[in-house]
Amino acid sequence: MMLSNLSLTTQISLFLFCAGICLALASLLLMFFIKNKWLSMVEDVVDNNYYSFSLNIFSASLGISRYGLIFQFHWQAKRCDRLKQRDKVPKEVQKLFITNNIIQLIGFTAFFSGIAIIHI
After folding, report:
1. Range of 68's domain?
2. Per the domain annotation, does 39 fall within a domain?
3. For residue 106, what are the contacts with CB-CB under 8 A and spacing of at least 6?
4. 37 located within any domain
5. CB of 89 closer than 8 Å to CB of 71
6. Residue 57 forms part of a structural domain
7. Model pLDDT, residue 2
8. Residue 76 has pLDDT above 60, yes or no
9. Global pTM?
10. Residue 107: inside a domain
11. 4: which DSSP letter?
12. pLDDT (tens digit per residue) in 26-44
């Protein structure tokens, strides 16, 4: 079946679905990179090794999301009482965590939008 034979809504849905999968895979690759290179250092600086998110990829995804929110939002860092600790982490590392959160958000939104459009 050629793509030109599909309706516009089906084409948009297919594009969003594929874009969501690609962004989710990019986020997963970035998650592996952050886990292997930076997560244990951030755990040590921000939480004094109280939490151990670097054990496996599942707990690492939770830790990366948590630290990404702390680095991204002042109110979240204040809520978790991590304002002083987050400033000790280099800005480049903070940007990696924030970028991963944004890629995840856009990827999952595109993925589920593609699914929702096809069912409407």
Report:
1. 25-119
2. yes
3. 23
4. yes
5. yes
6. yes
7. 64
8. yes
9. 0.88
10. yes
11. G
12. 999 999 999 999 999 999 9
